[in-house]
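Students often ask why inverse folding is considered easier than folding. One informal answer: many sequences map to the same fold, so there is more than one right answer. In these notes we will look at a single instance of the problem. The structure comes first.
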């Protein structure tokens, strides 16, 4: 199958590599012509996947029109802040009705939409799906066993995409609960910043486990308020991804939190990283959704105050496990 992957960062490049090794005719779109040239000539992407050889048959282009026209299946792996614009640009050259799969984990800042909702708005008529779960890019590149979820309401489309992605030790599950899957993937990045802060401040494992568990309660509360199913958040797209992101030193969101916990400024951390940490932006949308649904969500609100510079990470620490302003504290609810 001819598949186009938009975005040649760590995850887009990884997914394009998996699909090429699965014998699909994959074309990856890189914003930077230098990155496209490097992938074509040297079969590497050193900035994002240092030390990993890419499959020789993976082709890259910096021409978005060419990338769009190639696709029988479109996979979108640009950061959520660029998601809508990128879809608008590919729209004129896209074949009608082809499925579009989002790899991106976050919420659109102004509209508060999930990425499959953005797909449906910009590309009406195209089936929209999300690929999500505990999928740290470098582990997948290394061929380590992992599980992922393809989320879409239409089981026929889900099964077809499942077949396309399944390879070796990458096990692909389906889930019809797109809301639960996407809210889990977006919110776990915010909780990973919180656990990173705890890590940077040098707290104990009990505290980190507390933040992760209460974080899961926040993922679940918001997802259910938005129409998702609680069981989704207990699975790969919720707890699975939350655990991977909160415990792994590879996570960029956790890294941001850890550096904040060590007293560094957010601007310095982001400037030095040169990679996306979606939780930093998604937290703004998450707080507005919490307000809309009348939810306490203390971890999310605390991280929002840190990211906006209202309080320091050290100040945040005392509030991370606070449950409810009225003093009603029950677990897991
Ligand atoms: N890296 C990982 O392990 C995983 C990442 N994700 C998600 O995938 C999405 C992409 O993440 P990564 O590839 O890791 O990010 P990255 O930071 O490694 O790469 C981002 C890519 O997007 C491009 N980009 C940045 N701004 C752009 C713009 N305005 N227009 C067009 N392209 C732009 C960059 O040039 C780069 O190629 C994120 O939403 C992330 O949460 C999901 C699962 C795993
Ligand atoms: O989503 C991820 C793993 O599933 C990657 O997390 P980070 O974006 O924090 O690196």
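Output (designed amino acids):
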């Amino acid at each position: 199958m001819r598949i186009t992957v938009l975005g040649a960062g760590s995850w887009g490049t990884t997914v394009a590599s998996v699909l090429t090794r699965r014998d699909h005719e994959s074309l990856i779109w890189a914003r930077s012509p230098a990155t496209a040239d490097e992938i074509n000539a040297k079969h590497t992407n050193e900035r994002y996947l240092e030390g990993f050889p890419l499959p020789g048959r993976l082709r890259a282009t910096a021409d978005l029109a060419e990338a769009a026209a190639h696709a029988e299946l479109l996979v979108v792996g640009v950061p959520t802040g660029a998601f809508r614009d990128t879809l608008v640009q590919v729209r004129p050259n896209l074949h009608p009705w082809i499925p579009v799969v989002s790899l991106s984990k976050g919420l659109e800042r102004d509209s508060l939409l999930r990425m499959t909702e953005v797909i449906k708005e910009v590309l009406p008529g195209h089936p929209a799906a999300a690929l999500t779960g505990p999928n740290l890019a470098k582990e997948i590149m290394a061929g380590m066993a992992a599980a992922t979820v393809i989320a879409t309401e239409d089981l026929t489309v889900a099964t077809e995409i499942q077949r396309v992605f399944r390879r070796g030790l990458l096990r692909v599950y389906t889930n019809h609960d797109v809301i639960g899957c996407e809210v889990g993937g977006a919110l776990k990045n915010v909780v990973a910043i919180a656990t990173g802060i705890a890590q940077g401040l040098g707290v104990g494992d009990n505290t980190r486990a507390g933040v992760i568990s209460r974080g899961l309660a926040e993922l679940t509360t918001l997802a259910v308020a938005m129409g998702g199913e609680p069981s989704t958040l207990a699975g790969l797209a919720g707890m699975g991804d939350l655990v991977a992101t909160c415990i792994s030193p590879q996570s960029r969101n956790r890294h941001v939190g850890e550096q904040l916990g060590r007293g560094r400024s957010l601007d310095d951390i982001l400037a030095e990283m040169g990679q996306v940490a979606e939780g930093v932006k998604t937290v703004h949308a998450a707080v507005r959704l919490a307000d809309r649904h009348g939810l306490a969500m203390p971890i999310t609100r605390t991280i929002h105050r840190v990211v906006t510079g209202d309080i320091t990470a050290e100040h945040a620490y005392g509030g991370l496990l606070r449950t409810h302003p009225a003093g009603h504290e029950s677990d897991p609810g």
